[in-house]
Amino acid sequence: MADAAPDLKPARVTSPARNARRFFWPGGLSSRLLILTCLFVVLSQLLILAPSLASYEERWLSERVRLAELASTAVDGAPGRKVSKGLSKQLLEGAGVVSVAVQSDGLRRLLLAGPRMERTPYLVDLRDPNPIAWLSAPFQTLFGGPDQMVRVVAAPQFREADFVEIVAPDKVLREELFAYLWRVVAVTLFTSVFAGGLVYLSLNAFLVRPMQRITRTMERFRADPEDPRAQVGLSGRRDEVGRAEAELDRMQTDVRTALQAKARLAALGEAVAKINHDLRNMLTSAQIASERLAQSGDPSVTQALPRLERALDRAVTLATDVLAYGKTQEAVPRPVAVPLKAALEAAAEDAGLSPDGVQLGAALSAQDQVQADPDQLHRILLNLLRNAREAIESAPKPEVRGTVRVSLERDGTMFVVQLVDNGPGVPERLRPRLFQPFAGSGRSGSTGLGLAIARELAQAHGGDLRLVQSSDEGSVFELRLPC
């Protein structure tokens, strides 16, 4: 029987170094700040450790040299400049050295001498020490081994001589250096923990906790943008944290607005789909009725039929406008030469302009033409004229008759169609978002899609639509189309 096929899926191997890194390098920002602060304090103490030990050893050796120099003055007062062995031993023990010598005029003289040394002492020159030798001397004392002797050369202070030289055991010096080292280590640890704690608490209060609060807010906002707890609270700070809070608040507002617009688009799309379904049935019935009316032969009926058809077309156009904006892409325009005056009159009639109400004033001739897609141009003009009429009717001026004046000019390679109305003007608060869907209308019951659709169609032609001027005297819109 054949052996079972081995499992070829590689086992997940966890690197010990990776585990160690995770253990010694936690993921929290607070913990990292605490560890880094302690490490930096310890590093700074290590940098000054060697100079501190060298200075301590230099002071200790200088004291021994001065004590030995004072002890050696007793030799100068003794008969024949010689002292007994007992007195010499007593003076050396009092100074803590084993020999004292001086050199004057190139002649070296041993003033106090102890027993013969078995090992050669190491030299420390206090007159003009080399920085490297000065820094390495305490480590030689600490780790040079037991029962060592140190030979110290220094400038004299209490006698006239070239230098004073002593030899002393370094056992006491080593013990004091170790004690000083442990004191430095203890102070370093205390300082690092204390400073790290202060930095930890300070940064945790001023940086980490606000960032944690902002992070939790972002997580809640991602999970549910409508959650009231997901709204970031502004602390009023003027530093980077305050700026981050302000920008997050603006971002949340923008995202909520976009989501609301998207939800409204989805609702409109669903509603328009239902409207179009029912509208087809109504149009079919209306067409059958209009055909039967056309066969009646009544002149008044025949005269009213075009208005009935246009009314039906306006209903279809109204639903189509909303549906068209919900499409991913408009149909590609097919520009042809369109008589502008005829297009304006047709759009004005559909937009509700009339001699008895808001009037159309077109300073155009029948030969004035623009290059545009006829259907899309009709939609652009219809939206502009309808908006103008509704604006004028919403704030009528009894002393002035509502009028929309249209003119045509040529600017290089562009046709410029200007529409000037004498309405109340566009409110200042709406101008920045006038061409944004669902945001550019200040009238109740308006979807705010008309200008957005019109500008999209104009830009599809390679032109543009913009508000040139607006005041209490009226508004001026400019439609630019390529020649």
In short:
With 483 residues, the protein is α+β, with helices and mostly antiparallel strands.
What is the mean pLDDT?
78
Q: In angstroms, what separates the terminal alpha carbons?
A: 86 Å
The sequence of SSEs as H and E is HHHEEEHEEHHHEHEEHEEHEE
Describe the global form: rod-shaped
Question: Helix content range of the residues, please?
Answer: 40-55%
Number of domains: 3
Describe this structure in words.
The structure is a single chain. This protein is an alpha+beta fold. It has three domains: 24-192, no CATH class; 239-327, Helix Hairpins (Orthogonal Bundle), CATH 1.10.287; 329-482, Histidine kinase-like ATPase, C-terminal domain (Heat Shock Protein 90). Helices cover 54% and strands 16% of the residues. A five-stranded mixed sheet has the order 2-1-5-4-3. It starts with 15 loop residues before the first helix and ends with a strand. Residues 1-24 have low confidence and may be disordered.
Write the layout of secondary structure elements.
Layout: H1 16-24, H2 29-77, H3 85-95, E1 99-104, E2 107-113, E3 122-125, H4 131-143, E4 149-154, E5 163-169, H5 171-223, H6 240-294, H7 299-326, E6 336-339, H8 340-351, E7 359-362, E8 369-372, H9 374-394, E9 403-411, E10 414-421, H10 450-460, E11 464-471, E12 474-482
Parallel strand pairs: 3-4, 7-9
Antiparallel strand pairs: 1-2, 1-5, 4-5, 6-8, 9-10, 10-12, 11-12
Helix pairs in contact: 2-3, 2-4, 2-5, 5-6, 6-7, 8-9, 9-10
